[in-house]
Write a structure and sequence with these properties.
Layout lengths: L2 H17 L10 E7 L4 E6 L14 H20 L2 E11 L8 E9 L4 E10 L5 E12 L8
Helix pairs in contact: 1-2
């Protein structure tokens, strides 16, 4: 898979999710910044909305978990040719997420035929500091985004 093919697959998947009414992942402001298919690496930009923040003004931990789960599943789906269902998700919150924009670096460590694994690091775009990391395991489901109604 080329960088452009990976970029296009993930961008199109994001557009499909964002266009489906009621799709949880579609409500988030996530976009693909760039990718390196040779490293199974995709960088995303995430801009949290006001209703994704907690009473202290930081991004809610549940929102962070959902966003990271979603951005790990996207490249896995692209690299394995199927939909990625979450088996395990582990998140480490390093700092409060108070910024308006984040870089999410996602690496698919093992794009497997049955089980895949990915890691992410979230960086505050203002300070450059890491604010969260996550690791996830995903099971390949033999369905593509195109087959979803």
């Amino acid at each position: 898979m080329t960088n452009q093919e990976l970029f296009d697959y993930i961008s199109n998947s994001l557009k499909r999710c964002q266009s489906r009414e009621g799709q949880l992942e579609g409500r988030y402001d996530i976009s693909v910044r760039d990718c390196d298919a040779s490293k199974n690496l995709v960088n995303f930009i995430y801009r949290p909305k006001a209703d994704e923040r907690n009473v202290y003004g930081g991004v809610h931990g549940g929102t962070t978990a959902t966003v990271l789960d979603f951005v790990m599943a996207l490249p896995i789906g692209a690299l394995t040719g199927g939909f990625a269902g979450t088996i395990q998700l582990s998140i480490q919150y390093l700092r409060p997420m108070m910024a308006d924009e984040y870089l999410i670096e996602c690496i698919c460590m093992h794009p497997g035929n049955k089980v895949s694994q990915a890691t992410t690091t979230v960086y505050d775009m203002t300070s450059g500091n890491p604010v969260a990391t996550a690791q996830g395991s995903y099971s390949k489901v033999n369905i593509t985004y195109d087959q979803l109604k």
